[in-house]
Amino acid sequence: MTLAIFDLDNTLLAGDSDHAWGEFLVEEGIVDAETYRKANDRFYQEYLNGEMDILNYLGFALQPLSTHGMDELLEWRAAFMAKKVRPMMQRKANELLNRHRERGHTLMIITATNRFVTEPIAEALGIEHLIATDPEMINGRYTGAVAGTPSFQEGKVTRLTDWLTAHGKSLDGAWFYSDSHNDLPLLEKVENPIAVDPDPKLEKHAKKKGWQVISLRG
């Protein structure tokens, strides 16, 4: 089994689903617009800068899940998929996924964005395996806390290692596609690291290392 692993936001998608979920909550009047938008934008900039405290961010991002019932959340998520996510999907990303399928590779998304947001996106892309940050759930309701290790920076390596152990698989011949310097810990672990529409830090590192740099935009 050869793994083809993909970051989600700004890699397979032409945008960031986590940030877009926050925008959706603001636009639908589900959260306080001014306060939430400012915090959402600030955390996103910290992420881009490589300065984000993931647990601090998740305390913010998962809080709305804890204050609403599942039926309401699922209704909002369906609207979010149609309004925000579908326009981010890219033809070239689908073509890339199909090339890996044709080679018999096992496809996986690994993302720091929480599973509630990303599970239907992985399903829409036809990708069976998803490693995402898991929101804690007790008695059918989200608590606002995180369950286990967030799949962010070194946490992606930890979570993937756990998955490989559980499934009796290895990283032999694996591919990993990402846009972000936050993913350097995992990019350094695979035989085929690919920088996709990379941020400046990753682009510089990729060129220094001789990694392939591609674009899925347009």
Concise summary:
The chain is an alpha/beta fold. 51% of the residues lie in helices and 19% in strands.
3D architecture notes:
By secondary structure, the protein is an alpha/beta fold. The protein is 51% helix and 19% strand. It has helices at 8-12, 17-27, 33-49, 54-61, 63-66, 70-85, 91-102, 115-124, 154-167, 184-187, 200-209, and strands spanning 3-6, 106-114, 129-138, 141-147, 175-178, 192-196, 212-214. The protein has a 7-stranded mixed beta sheet. Helix 2 packs antiparallel against helix 3 and helix 2 (17-27) packs across helix 6 (70-85). The chain is globular, with a radius of gyration of 17 Å. The relative contact order is 0.17.
Taking pLDDT < 50 over at least 5 consecutive residues as the criterion, the unreliable ranges are none
Strand tally is 7
% residues in beta strands: 15-25%
Main β sheet profile:
7 strands, mixed
Shape: globular
The number of distinct helices, counting runs of at least 4 residues, comes to 11
Helix content class: 40-55%
Mean pLDDT over all positions: 96
Estimated structural class: alpha/beta
N-to-C span: 31 Å
Radius of gyration: 17 Å
The largest beta-sheet arranges its strands as 4-3-2-1-5-6-7
- SSE sequence, one letter per element: EHHHHHHHEHEEHEHEHE
